[in-house]
């Protein structure tokens, strides 16, 4: 499963485009008819799509653990359930 993002309307479309260019599955709240929705409604949509905080947190923690052996500054890290790719 690829890490998926649903960006709230306070983030610019170029943030969504940048994530898509890097291979992430990205939707925006506005494109899904959730413009102006409160956080609870956005969270409900994410949960309905099985886009859970637990899955995202697990990937983030894996990256944090890796910083013990890999330098993070100035590098792009792409983390998914299968692997970590680090670009200089």
- The H/E string reads EHEHHEE
Amino-to-carboxy terminus distance: 25 Å
User: What is the CA-based Rg, rounded?
Assistant: 14 Å
The main pleated sheet reads as: 2 strands, parallel
* Helix-and-strand structural type: alpha+beta
Strand order of the largest sheet: 1-2
Q: pLDDT below 50 for ≥5 consecutive residues: which ranges?
A: none
Question: Number of domains in the coordinates?
Answer: 2
Question: Shape, please?
Answer: globular
How large is the share of residues in beta strands?
Answer: 15-25%
Count every beta strand, where a strand is a DSSP E run of 2 or more residues.
4
Give the helix proportion (percent range): 25-40%
Work out the helix count.
3
Quote the average pLDDT.
83
Which descriptors apply to this entry?
single chain; 88 residues; alpha+beta; 2 domains; two-stranded parallel ribbon; two-stranded antiparallel ribbon; 3 helices; globular
Give the helices and strands, then pairings.
Blueprint: E1 4-7, H1 13-21, E2 25-28, H2 39-48, H3 53-66, E3 76-79, E4 84-87
Parallel strand pairs: 1-2
Antiparallel strand pairs: 3-4
What would you say this structure looks like, in words?
- The chain has three helices and four strands.
- It has 88 residues and is of the alpha+beta class.
- The protein folds into two domains: 1-51, no CATH class; 52-88, no CATH class.
- A two-stranded parallel sheet has the order 1-2. The chain has a two-stranded antiparallel ribbon with strand order 3-4.
């Amino acid at each position: 499963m690829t890490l998926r993002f649903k960006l709230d309307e306070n983030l610019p479309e170029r943030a969504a485009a940048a994530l898509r260019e890097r291979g992430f599955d990205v939707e925006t709240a506005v494109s899904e008819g959730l413009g102006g929705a409160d956080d609870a409604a956005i969270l409900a949509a994410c949960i309905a799509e099985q886009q859970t905080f637990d899955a995202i947190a697990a990937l983030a923690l894996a990256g944090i653990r890796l910083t013990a052996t890999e330098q993070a500054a100035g590098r792009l890290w792409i983390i998914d359930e299968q692997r970590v790719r680090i670009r200089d």
